[in-house]
Amino acid sequence: MNPTVVALWAPRALAVLRIVAALIFMAHGTQKLFGFPAPASGNFPPMMSLPWIAAIIEVAGGLLLLLGVMVRPAAFIMSGTMAVAYWMAHAPRSPFPVNNGGDAAILYCFVFLYLAVAGGGSWTLASLRGTDAAHAR
């Protein structure tokens, strides 16, 4: 592939990954907190419980990623949240992710870890404001 094309499109592809991951991740949080876009299975999590805190991180962190603001710290926290979710909720069921339902948690963990290192790519609110030149590349 042409290096010029790669240099042009890599930050944009990173931005698309960030935006799509943020939107899907936020949907998990809004489902837990508000029953949207579909009602959660069971009751809403009690305030200050681990599922409630996770939902707050999903909504707030997802919004930060979506907008491209504080991408690195938000993604780092979200990555850790998914690691904790995997080891607390999924791994005890089975050592195999395909059997324990933890596939998405693992993927989110590593996608967010990558974003914590790589930044938000193009199309960030921070780059439009000129406060985050490193993420605008």
TrEMBL record:
Keyword annotations of the record: Cell membrane, Membrane, Transmembrane, Transmembrane helix
Name listed for the protein in its UniProt record: DoxX family protein
Family note: Belongs to the DoxX family.
Native species: Teichococcus aerophilus
InterPro entries cross-referenced by the UniProt entry: DoxX, DoxX-like_oxidoreductase
Membrane topology: Multi-pass membrane protein
Predominant subcellular localization, coarse grouping: membrane
Iron-sulfur as UniProt keyword: no
Positions of transmembrane segments: 12-29, 49-67, 74-93, 105-128
Subcellular location: Cell membrane
PANTHER family, per database record: BLL4328 PROTEIN, OXIDOREDUCTASE CATD-RELATED
Keyword Cell membrane: yes
